[in-house]
# Entry
Amino acid sequence: MVRSVDAEVLSAALLTIEDERSWDAQAELTRAISIEEAARVLGDPLLIARARLCQANMRMRSGDIAGAAEQIWQVHEWAVGNDARLLLARTHLIWACVHQHLGDSEQALEHALLSVELLDDESTTHMHIWHRTKLADALWAAGSMDAARIRYAQAEELAVLTGSPVLLSLLNNHAYAEYDTGHQQRAEEVAKRLQRLAGERGIPLEPAFLDTIGAIQIGNGRFAEAETTMRLCIERHAEGRHEDADALPEYLLTLAQAQRGLQAYSRAQESLDECRAMCADRDLVEVLVRVHQEQAELHAVRGEFAEAFAVHKTFFTAYQNLHSLQREARTRTRQAMFETVEARQEAERFREQARRDPLTGLHNRRHVDEVLPVLIESDPSLTIALVDLDHFKQVNDRLSHSVGDQVLIKVAALIADGVAAACPEGFTARIGGEEFLVVLPGTLPARAFALLDGIRRTIREHDWRDLTHGLPVTVSIGVAAAADAAAPTQPALLSTADGHLYSAKHAGRDRVVSAASRGYASAA
# Structure
């Protein structure tokens, strides 16, 4: 009972990271790591995967894209293997954000679409709203603003119906998307809805939302309102609840633009100087480039054309350097992501090779030991069979070990093809020199007997003349069914199959024996 309560507590804690906005990514990363450790103590793989995806999200928000990518791959692999639909939806949403960061709008859109397609009745309200919002953001970034508006509207309608606190965030995103694509009137309309709803709910607008509103007011030539908005924005930022390294410099830059529009050039210069000093102190290269651009504009409107030209050259050089740095950073990140994927695929290849017989390509005993106990426990209709070549020593002694290997390869292929055609869920493994195991899920003894006898005949009737020069190749098969055992286990079923195989050999070989038959398949 304690385990159940602890799991519920951890799940609820994860939900607050997954479905609530936080400005402190590092604190949430630390919390998610702590939750993962607690989930490992419980032995709950779903909670572990959820905690790791939260970590990936916070790493991405902190700028560690390569670290985030490595964790996302691991979580994605687990989610696919365990049909964890909600986790998979969240995984694709974070992948969309990663690709957006890398400037790959096509991949971002593909993942955003998948994140919405995977939503179902078990998805949280936040997921239904925010996944559609991020799909809208991806559509906007991909240049499909008409399609983006449809998704923003869907998300907004659901957020209004449910009273979701995320409504203000999605309206902010929508307003900025309209502003960014040059639809100033639409941007103004959405911004007004944002302000009205915040007032109705008694929620003070966050500084980031006020910055969006201020930019839209500037775009519509309402500079005095924009200056008022941005001073309120900076006041709220000073409260310390919404801190990002580049937040205040961004707000000061927007304020300077509003003041330039008001022709309050001295105030604009003061705001710009303060912004520039913060950019230098915090190494905010991207914001500093835009500071140079705004400084050139400010010199120009004051008639200081020589200064404007000089600063514009500084801006242009900084702009080119920034884009070069961004390209290099994206290249490094993509390379790190590729290496992560490559290493994962290489590890998977090694794992698969360790579970394959190098001669025949069939699964080996290690694979059987990993998979068969699970099938026995979960499938009461499971049937297995041991297949052994008859008089195989004669092939090696009279022809050669090389010919013997070729016979083994061909027999393995004939068995595997027969199993794949009649029971696609089944598999064949080589577990000894000339001994094979056939595993047939969902196959009761009578059907299994017919299937195996067909394989036996196929092997006997195959044209072996070119390979064995007239020496016959046949197999004997012993069958064991989970349905015939009171408490089936792997050792018990293998022992039963081995006993029936011995009976088949003793009765003359080239036949199938099971508990149900005890009458042997004819060699004719």
About this structure: The longest strand covers residues 383-389.
